[in-house]
Design brief:
Chain lengths: 394, 388, 247
């Protein structure tokens, strides 16, 4: 029968006992930080692994390979593919086909240790076929000049991995002429050099690992794929580039299990912690609640008021946690640089921990849910207090 | 009446609060333990490979760059080398097309046992490996994961070589943590030749055992000297160093895990500290009376801290147990994962248990100390004045 | 004649309460002999509780000296005072006397935790003390199942279990009804008569005058003496409808 208690009542109660509210909010905040960091990490990893992939590109590899690091393509196979019908052509009427050689040499890390790095030998058609890749500093390599461009994610991670620096890997030295930017995709964890030079240096029997090509349109892409898969002479398979990278990203999916585990455990734990302080709050305000009930406010109104308080604490926790996690992510980025992950090519994907809007949105929901869940039982107890009982206890 | 009874009785003062606190702490400790199993999994692998007489010889440019197969013989002939076996990555996928779910190598069957005597492979099984060209030796963890037994036949489709191989499981290695499978070098070589290729001809890594740990450095230097200025210059390193480097890039992830672990631990201190504060505040009157009666500050602080310690440590034990259960599930669900590597073993080692318990004790102490000290901060007379 | 048990010489106590400077006691001197049951009386804020705290070693005076059983309390620091109290003083309060989580027996045994007695000895003494106050049938009861009067009697048992030189009680009957108050006062009287205990009690209760050997009156921190004391005494008795008593 009686109206809702005003929102201000709940909010003011949260602010009235700052120490207790802050304690509860901080517990929720810590859960927010933990989840935001992990989600940010996985999000960054997924964003990296899914190199967006061009919609009309096909990745051609040896049948049975799962990535272009373990595949081999002969010169004849490349020549065959190159002149297939349906491949897009550039302004100079050249088929947009990029043969590439992938090798994984050791590179020495500046902060100690060594890693396998994905070095991609490319030819002139590489940049047109991969439109998301741009040289943002310096210039692209010239063929047969012993040059290299370094992905943005690798700059500063290895000796010489900087514009104008000299990289040492394989059996040679490579002069860094540029830095490549690829919209946060995995290409930013690669080094690009001349395919022929790389083949010589690595003493490869096969000149290329794979071929990437641009189809004219979706229908032709499907036809091209069928044609390549069915080729009798060369055991090849073609995969749409988007699909190719999507399957790489699947290996990161197991990390989501970890996040879910962390979120559930931490969330429930924080929920219990929040319930604790809310019970104490209810106990301390027994007289006040009794008075409200005596005045005529219905049980539902009391319940709602306390739930609003619980949600408010969740929101407060989210705010504290969001700020803290953004700060932490910043510190981690600048103090430790990128986090290395091992890719299916056994090379390192360097991921910069970034917390984006999606991650914060999930964390917000988590915080409010934890607050509400923790507050349910205490709110219920508050609502069930009978006026006379409450007044007597006072 | 004894101190124990007093501390325990006080915990029963507000059972709901004690239970809620314990539940929160137990879950948080479970989480901490879970997270700690990750770097522990890495340490476990590295310690396993602490054989201090085994070295790896690989191309200086990278493990993906091959060495000529003939080099293996040269390594074998170096003074101090007891045995050497060539390993080549087969990259075979089992059932899941194009996806390698456990490491598998083509190895020199006649030499591998002498290089890995610590694997203690049953001699009968080793003999079968030598007898059957299509034989395979599998790690126990891998056997269990796929439900294979000795005698089973499986097919591996290589993602690196243009062949599929049918294998017969003839032996096992008692290894539950690191997945592995060995097949025979000559079997792969033959299969390639049958397809029209010129055979294997290369070695990816040569694993060698040195007779004496003191000779290891000298042997490594000699081997690298042998290959200097050749087409495939080598870099030798100890087994431990090899795997340390191999998993080296995981340190970034480990760091973040440890940051999160610390945050969760902080959370526990907050929760438990909050509870203790509330409890202390409620008992202001009683505590004032106890001090008036003549209980020294130190004793009251000890009793209050003991209460916090009891709850947190008890909950901590529950949390560790919970973690043991959870990791079992996680392990089954996650499997061997490329991204996590050994971090994904999720194995609760004794080290993790000890860490979890010690952390609980430390957190209990920290949580209890501030409110406890606060309870006895003011002089008795003032404390009495507050309550009366 | 024996030395007085408690000697209070020109004692003042001033302290800060928030922004105010409180002068709780001014230049109070008092001797109390052993084996007597005395009351400290006066209106609210007269300083009687403060005086009680000083002579029981809970507080230190700002100026002046307190000597109890030959011990100059000023010589002891906070922890030493606590130890001294544990051995020499038994305390009874108006509220919060008992720990709600312990039985009557365990509550009485509480101060014995500070001694070196073993568990069975502690239990034995607690039971003895409870027998003295007539609560042998309530050994295992928790405070919430005891009446107000019974709770105070348990508190009294606790006060005597260490066999202290001095027992102090701060408003012990303040929260009790008439019948229970009389029982408690009678019990205290019995302790002095039968066991020679020295008891100093702060009280508002006019009934106390029937049981104590002497009453001291305080007003605004000053100890009333002579004519003023007599008048205060009389006023209380008249208010309670009691006959005058020769000091």
């Amino acid at each position: 029968m009686a109206a809702h208690l005003p929102l201000g009542y709940s909010v003011r109660n949260v602010l009235a006992r700052p120490a207790r509210s802050l304690m509860t909010a901080t517990v929720i905040a810590l859960v927010v930080v933990a989840c935001a960091l992990l989600l940010g990490l996985i999000g960054s990893l997924r964003r990296t692994l899914i190199a967006s992939g061009e919609a009309l590109n096909l990745v051609v590899m040896r049948k049975g390979s799962d990535n272009d690091g373990s595949s081999q393509v002969t010169l004849e196979a490349y020549q065959m593919v190159r002149f297939l019908d349906g491949i897009a052509r550039d302004a100079g009427d050249q088929p947009m086909v990029s043969p590439e050689l992938v090798v994984q040499p050791f590179l020495r890390r500046l902060d100690g240790g060594r890693e396998n790095v994905l070095v991609r030998g490319v030819e002139a058609m590489a940049l047109p076929v991969h439109p998301e890749v741009r040289i943002t500093q310096g210039r692209m390599i010239a063929p047969s000049a012993g040059e290299a461009v370094v992905g943005r994610g690798l700059v500063g991670r290895y000796e010489g991995a900087v514009l104008g620096g000299e990289l040492r890997f394989g059996r040679g030295r490579w002069k860094v002429t540029g830095v490549l930017d690829a919209g946060g995709s995995s290409f930013e964890s690669e080094i690009w050099v001349d395919a022929r030079e790389l083949g010589r240096d690595a003493k490869r029997l096969f000149p290329y690992s794979g071929v990437r090509l641009r189809a004219r349109d979706a229908a032709t892409m499907a036809a091209l794929k069928r044609r390549i898969d069915a080729d009798p002479r060369h055991a090849l398979e073609a995969k749409p580039e988007v699909e190719y990278y999507a399957s790489q990203a699947e290996s990161a999916d197991v990390l989501y299990i970890l996040v879910v585990g962390v979120a559930v455990l931490a969330g429930i734990g924080a929920g219990f912690g929040a319930a604790n302080t809310m019970y104490a709050s209810v106990q301390a305000r027994t007289a006040e609640i009794g008075t409200l009930r005596a005045m005529g406010f219905a049980r539902g109104a009391i319940l709602r008021a306390f739930q609003v308080e619980a949600a408010a604490l969740g929101v407060l926790g989210f705010v504290i946690g969001a700020v803290a996690s953004l700060v932490l992510a910043y510190v981690i980025r600048h103090a430790f640089g990128g986090v290395g992950f091992s890719a299916s090519t056994f090379t390192t994907n360097v991921v910069l921990l970034r917390i984006g809007v999606t991650e914060l949105a999930v964390a917000f929901v988590l915080a409010v849910v934890v607050g509400l869940a923790g507050g349910i039982a205490p709110a219920w107890r508050a609502a069930r207090l009978r006026p006379i009982e409450a007044l007597r206890r006072a | 009446m004894s101190w124990t009874r007093l501390v325990l009785a006080n915990l029963g003062r507000n059972p709901l609060r004690t239970v809620l606190t314990a539940a929160a702490v137990a879950l948080a400790v479970a989480l901490v333990s879970l997270l700690l199993t990750m770097p522990a999994g890495l340490d476990l692998i590295l310690d396993r490979f602490a054989s201090n007489t085994r070295i790896s010889v690989h191309n200086k440019a990278g493990v993906v760059y091959p060495m000529p197969y003939a080099f293996t013989r040269k390594v074998r002939q170096v003074d101090g080398v007891v045995a050497a076996a060539a390993f080549t990555w087969f990259g075979g996928a089992y059932e899941e097309a194009g996806r390698v779910t456990f490491p598998n190598f083509a190895v020199e069957a006649e030499h591998v046992n002498a290089v890995y005597p610590d694997y203690a492979i049953d001699p009968g099984q080793m003999a079968a490996f030598l007898r059957y060209r299509d034989g395979a030796i599998v790690g126990r963890g891998t056997l269990k994961k796929y439900g294979w037994s000795l005698g089973d036949r499986i097919t591996l489709k290589s993602t690196v070589w243009p062949v599929d191989l049918d294998l017969r499981i003839v032996g096992e290695v008692a290894n539950d943590t690191a997945p592995m499978l060995w097949l025979r070098y000559d079997y792969l070589d033959e299969a390639l030749k049958k397809q029209g290729w010129t055979g294997l001809g290369i070695a990816g890594v040569v694993w060698a055992r040195v007779s004496d740990p003191k000779l290891v450095n000298a042997v490594m230097r000699t081997v690298d000297d042998l290959s200097r200025n050749s087409e495939a210059e080598t870099a030798s390193e100890t087994e431990k160093s090899f795997f340390g480097n191999f998993f080296g890039s995981l340190d970034g992830l480990v760091r973040i895990i440890l940051v999160i672990t610390s945050l969760v631990a902080l959370c526990i201190v907050f929760i438990a500290g909050n509870t203790t504060s509330m409890s202390v505040r409620e008992r202001a009157g009683e505590i004032a009376v106890l001090r008036a009666l003549g209980f020294p500050r130190r004793t009251i602080v000890q009793a209050l801290v003991a209460e916090a310690l009891l709850v947190v440590t008890g909950a901590g034990i529950l949390g560790v147990l919970l973690a043991v259960g959870l990791t079992g599930t996680l392990r089954t669900v996650a499997g061997w994962n490329q991204t996590l590597g050994p971090l994904g073993n999720f194995m609760v080692t004794p080290g993790v248990v000890v860490q979890g318990l010690l952390l609980s004790v430390a957190m209990g102490l920290t949580a209890g100390i501030a409110p406890a000290l606060g309870a006895v901060r003011r002089p008795v007379a003032e404390a009495l004045r507050e309550v009366f | 004649m024996a030395e007085p048990l408690i000697v209070i010489r020109r004692v003042s106590r001033r302290y800060q309460r928030g922004a105010d400077d409180v002068h709780a006691l001014e230049d109070v001197s008092l001797d109390i002999d052993g084996g007597r049951f005395v009351a400290l009386m006066g209106p609210s804020g007269s300083g009687k509780s403060t005086l009680l705290n000083l002579l029981s070693g809970i507080d230190q005076p700002s100026t002046g000296e307190v000597v109890v059983a030959g011990m100059r309390l000023a010589d002891l620091d906070e922890d030493a005072l606590a130890a001294w109290r544990a051995r020499h003083v038994g305390l009874i309060f108006q509220f919060f006397n008992l720990m709600p989580v312990l039985s009557a027996r365990d509550n009485v045994a509480l101060p014995l935790l500070l001694t070196h007695l073993d568990r069975s000895e502690r239990t034995r003494r607690a039971e003895t003390a409870l027998r003295v106050v007539g609560l042998s049938h309530r050994l295992d009861h928790f405070p919430r199942t005891l009446s107000g009067g019974e709770q105070q009697r348990v508190a009294i048992a606790r006060a005597i279990v260490t066999d202290p030189d001095l027992i102090v009680a701060d408003e012990p009957t303040g929260d009790l009804d008439a019948r229970n108050a009389e029982e408690v006062l009678a019990l205290l009287r019995q302790l002095t008569d039968q066991f020679g205990k020295t008891i100093v009690m702060v009280t508002h209760d006019p009934r106390a005058l029937r049981f104590v050997d002497a009453a001291y009156h305080l007003d605004k921190g000053i100890l009333l003496e002579g004519e003023a004391a007599h008048r205060a005494d009389e006023a209380i008795r008249r208010a309670a409808g009691q006959p005058e008593r020769r000091p």
